[in-house]
Amino acid sequence: TGQAQSPIGAESQLPHLQRQDGHYALVVDGKPYLMLGAQINNSSSWASTLPDVWPALEDLHVNTVEAPVYWEQMEAHEKTFDFSNVDLLVHGAREHHLHLVLLWFGTWKNGQMHYVPEWVKTNPAKYPRELNAYGKVLDVMSPHSAATLEADRHAFAALMHHLREIDGSEHTVIMMQVENESGSVGSVRDFSAAANKEFAGSVPQVLHAGSGTWSQVYGADADERFAAYATAHYINQVAAAGKAEYALPMYCNVWITYPVHALENRDHPSPGQEYPSGGPQQENIDIWKAAAPSIDLLGPDFYSDDRALFHRVVASYARPDNALFIPETHLGRDFGPNFFYALGHGAIGFSPFGVDYTNWTISDRKIPAFLSENFALLGPIEEQIAKLNLEGKVQTAVEQKGEPVARIHFAGVDAVVSYGFPQRDGEVPPGTLDASGRVIVAQLGPLDFLVTGFDASITFVATTAASAAPRNEQLEILSAEQGQYVGGAWQSSRNWNGDQTDRGLRFKSDNKDVVRIRLHTLPLY
Ligand code: N0T
Q1: Burial tier of 441 (Cβ tally within 10 Å: 0-12, 13-18, 19+)
Q2: What is the pLDDT of residues 496-521, one digit of tens each?
Q3: ipTM above 0.85, yes or no
């Protein structure tokens, strides 16, 4: 799926996704890179608002900013391009030592077409809209129009051409989002004559779904799957045209399907009514993967406080053929726990939405600590986490309500995690009020771990495989060094010992420490 297999090293290579045994890293300038991201508000990519953007990003401690590029602004007049907003973003990001992910607000924005230029909006004869089943004209472009596709491709290719010119050697821009939350709001699919004709035809071979018409192959889901193929096929061609100019990694974000309220007597929300039909939702991933090979990954946006749902969404999108990336989440209390959870499932990046001081999502120019502490803690070790995630060596534990103790399994060793303080000998740990305890344990060697987190203590215990003979050994700490990475090498600033280790490594709610703990086993006899 478009991952270069070249070894890490060359400084000059383009940002790309590297895959290893089904694990991923985004590689930037030869190094694995964990995107500690933030997306700015929709109408913030302007000269008048950018001064209110940068300080918020700094306060959240991000290393990457996601910012929109508006087709309507970039090509207000057909075939004449204005890259001034793009240039401001690239230069501003450089000035603030940030990388940039650009979001192409083109044919689709949240399942509608509100960012197409006026010359597209006002010429539906040339650039047709979708029609719903009753013939109503929607504010969604038809994905079955060669003219609209050509116009979008042309504009996106021009953007990529420009980026290669201004950024081809600097790599400030590391990834592109092609369209935004695509799909159709208002109808399960396009019912225009052009669409109906294709719907009556056969399902393309490339989907490996069997042969027959859409209705024969997909039954009751035919309309929605048809919309998914049409949208994926269209966007794939936009991405391919862009990559032909400048081959950055490209992804699509997803307005996922959220479960129907438990009191309602139906098991699936309605496509085109409750979410944009034909986008890369959970049920459409296989179609999108087959129909859009130029899209490197599909990344779910997550707007819910339901953590169990987040875990299911991660399970859907973290696949051997799809790197996990969360391009948007709301600025809620679950940000930290969900961020840690995603890291434990190989995420290459995580990005809350609405981070700027335009007074839309954040008031009083103040980022709450429960948000900013996360990237502040992990920023200094982002490269190590990205590298270890590529090797499948990162695990996390996130507190769940009513479960104050958790275990993380490694070969021969468990990390026992106790949430909340105070913790007293012989007592069950108290947990935290909002189940916000979270830890990351990355394995550097068989008995060598990088550990940090919030509101939790960690002890290590030897485990014995049930089938093997009892090991009769005791596990001891050789050293627990608090420290940091400098130029890729671990540098210790002090040893934790005595009270700092005897009852576990303790990471309080305002923790800023990272510890490297080395253990050994002593045979008892
Ligand atoms: C997101 C954002 C922005 C049960 C919303 C979320 C962004 C877009 N759309 O602020 O518009 O550009 O990608 C859709 C959320 C559906 C929530 C359903 C909750």
Answers
A1: buried
A2: 999 999 999 999 999 999 999 999 98
A3: yes
